[in-house]
Amino acid sequence: MAARRWRGPGGEIDLILRTGGRLVFVEVKAAHSHAIAAERLSARQMGRIAASASAFLAGEPRGQDSEMSFEVALVDGAGRIAIVENAFGV
User: What is the DSSP letter of 43?
Assistant: First the structure.
């Protein structure tokens, strides 16, 4: 794990993971169901997370050219987790 609850200019990123040379920015959303959790992620929030990710990348050796992805971890009322890969379409 590279960071947990990392705060940048756009707001907080729940988790930042390193897998090989790739960075994975993860937003965690919880609700009674996975569908409701997914609805809680707005386009505005995705923009803020992307802005913070950009600030995080400024401190990386490859900067904005770093390999990365944005994922969402949906947590339902029973604690089951569903991962949405490349959730921001970046």
Answer: H
DSSP SS3 for 47 = helix
Mean pLDDT of the 85-90 span? 81
Domains and CATH numbers, the chain: 3-84 (3.40.1350.10)
pLDDT digits (tens, 9 = 90+) for 43-62: 999 999 999 999 999 999 99
User: In terms of Cα–Cα distance, which of 20, 25, 24, 23 is closest to 8?
Assistant: 25
Q: Which of 19, 24, 7, 13 is nearest to 87 (CA)?
A: 24
Residue 90 pLDDT grade (very low, low, confident, very high; cuts 50, 70, 90) = low
**Rounded distance, CA 50 to CA 33, Å?**
25
